User: Fold this.
Amino acid sequence: ADIISTVEFNHSGELLATGDKGGRVVIFQQEQENKIQSHSRGEYNVYSTFQSHEPEFDYLKSLEIEEKINKIRWLPQKNAAQFLLSTNGNSSLPKDRG
Assistant:
């Protein structure tokens, strides 16, 4: 369940989200001193962790939907808040338009 299945940086590169086969999303934040020094290798620390998906069963299609995160997409930032979408199973996210 701890095997990473997808990785996505936000638009600024300050946040990194990973999704795993167990349906968990872990968000990492770039260390403050690395933001100032753009030439240094970026080091990230865990910022937040949450369970995004649980295994479920689609009774209409008689299909088991696994919890594995297939894709993460950060939404464009409109204010100080950061939002992301994640998909599991056979679902997909719309293509990035910008």
Q: What stands out?
A: The chain has a mean pLDDT of 85. Strands lie at 4-9, 15-20, 24-30, 44-51, 56-58, 63-65, 69-74, 84-88. Helices lie at 32-36.
